[in-house]
Amino acid sequence: MPVSWEFRGSALVLTTEGKYQPEDLVRAVAEARADPRFRPGVFLLFDGSLSEAELTTESVKWRVAWVASLHDVGFSSRCAVVVSGDVHRYGLGRMASVLLEGEGVELEVFTDLQSALAWLDPSAAISHDG
Q: What are the tens digits of pLDDT across the range 75-128?
């Protein structure tokens, strides 16, 4: 499955591997929201460190609009993304951060999962309850 998810503390971690489509992200979030462990205010963490999906300015804009809409369905306005060390992906993550800021969402970009979890929620960095 190109997009999987798990709860870690009060964070929902979406992991993308290989190539995937936007609808895979939407499906994974819908599944997680239907899970009884979902709680309002959950943090969202995208782990794209294994992603091979083509990222363009347009696809980033779609993600920005989608992530901004998730606050209305119970997600925290604070989220994180983990990217590989690729400069292009890191730059697109920073672009998304700037665009989301205008939508009232705080996004930070990281190159490792533990740092992202610790920034979002220190209890999630050590918890594996998903």
A: 999 999 999 888 988 998 999 999 999 999 999 999 999 999 999 987 656 655
Q: What is the largest CA-CA distance in the chain?
A: 38
Q: What angle do CA 119, 47, 7 make, to 5 degrees?
A: 70
The identity of residue 78, as a single letter, is: R
The pTM for the full model equals: 0.89
**Dihedral pair phi/psi, residue 38, rounded to 5°:** -65, 135
Domains of the chain: 3-120 (3.30.750)
Give backbone dihedrals phi and psi of 84, rounded to 5 degrees, phi first. -70, 175
Contact 125, 118 (CB under 8 A): yes
